[in-house]
């Protein structure tokens, strides 16, 4: 330990320095405040013994100067005094003194006080080091947050939410939003929507928004299908995210005429289709696991479709909405939220709905990100980028044989339609062709081979049972073959598809019913195939489905 003695009495200097050297410490002396300041920078003392009464610059003036020179590290100053009046002692403390050494000196007391104040000095050094480390990490974190914030802002530049048919409410629980709402106009007047909820909230989940948003905007610009999109989202997030992190998501496409909604729900609360009275006409329940969990070979990109009636709106939200609490620690819940929907839907008062949510919360601390989206399912009136309508003049025929390994793997229909879309003039019809073929393929697979009953999907629990049975039966498939025969006839601009199987089981008799059943308006019914096809025919007792699609007509 280094000790600075400041005393104008040589006898005191000699006596104190001798004692302190015996204690094993280094000592320097000064006769007044000016000398002490000069010595300070050279010695950098750990403790100062300071006389009160000195010429030129006394102890009351010197103490604050020495404290200032010490900076952020505590410098113990022990005043040397023979005075004992309270006024003088108080003045010493006010000047920056920490303790007193009385004359005559008691060696034991002196040593104890030096050691005690040396420990305080060491603690101050330690605290300074920790503060510096904290400041360094704080500055580093701030820089990293600024970098991420800049990257997110750039990534979301294309995210235009100002559409007349769209209303959104976003309320992050922290600076960075773990929820993600993306929108994009497609090239054919269609409209894409992504609502995601990453595990947790704050900086970590927000970083997942970067690859998702970039992929979303890129694929939407190309007019790719929802199935293509979710496959790519999942592929990237599986590689990027840690094991304990995933992204629940609702991804949807609204057709240009506003009459068809194609969607994929992986872990987001039920999306609601509500009428003008605010009543729930249909629930788009989650049918899949969240993004970023399953490897590509186990991931299901199977989409669902629904046909939209007049005045229908889509309401989708993250779980932060129904899990918000008021000051009485009561959850809003699904029932409470739907009651608010009924109250404000008839007025189409989205702002009133948001105000009601905020009023319910009543300033209660928000623990999760909140995202709410309302989409009017009506004609979008978005600009259409006219696709190349010059369809290839070369006739062709393609026959694909799918066995159990191909069926259990990555969606084979995506691969097939991707290949077809490279042909001149077919790309503009990619989404519709995928819907047709996917519907026909899944009906063939699920009813002919898997023998699944679609009626059990009327409830959320039924959906779970359905897809659990689907996966179990898929794993047991043996000796299965589905043949897809594709033929293009240029003179008539017809693209025909024949789907047949080696199953002994055909479809139910209802498949031959040509009347549209309103009960099939939601889901994967034959209504979709009939609506987008120029001709549909069942052959071989329901074991073969023949479809004709007119490429000369505008893409739906």
Give me the count of strands.
20
Oligomeric state of this protein: single chain
Number of domains: 3
Low-pLDDT runs = 508-524
As a percent range, the share of helical residues equals 25-40%
Backbone CA Rg? 38 Å
Determine the number of helices (DSSP H or I, runs of at least 4 residues). 16
Measured between the Cα atoms of the first and last residue, the distance is 86 Å
CATH superfamily of the largest domain: PPM-type phosphatase domain
| Shape field | elongated
Please provide a written account of the structure.
- The structure is a single chain.
- Residues 508-524 have low confidence and may be disordered.
- This protein folds into 3 domains: 2-127, Rossmann fold, CATH 3.40.50; 159-376, PPM-type phosphatase domain (Phosphatase 2c, domain 1, 4-Layer Sandwich), CATH 3.60.40.10; 396-550, Histidine kinase-like ATPase, C-terminal domain (Heat Shock Protein 90, 2-Layer Sandwich), CATH 3.30.565.
- The protein has 16 helices and 20 strands.
- The chain is elongated.
- With 556 residues, it is α+β, with helices and mostly antiparallel strands.
- The longest helix has 49 residues, at 107-155.
- A 5-stranded parallel beta sheet has the order 2-1-3-4-5, with helices on both faces. The protein has a 5-stranded antiparallel beta sheet with strand order 6-15-14-11-12. The protein has a 5-stranded antiparallel beta sheet with strand order 7-8-9-10-13, with helices on one face.
- The chain has helices at residues 10-22, 33-43, 59-70, 86-94, 107-155, 203-206, 209-221, 226-240, 319-322, 333-345, 350-361, 404-408, 412-420, 430-449, 460-475, 526-532, and strands spanning 2-6, 26-30, 47-51, 77-81, 99-102, 166-171, 179-185, 191-198, 247-254, 260-266, 271-274, 280-284, 304-307, 313-317, 370-376, 396-403, 481-489, 494-501, 535-539, 544-550.
- It starts with a strand and ends in a 6-residue tail after the last strand.
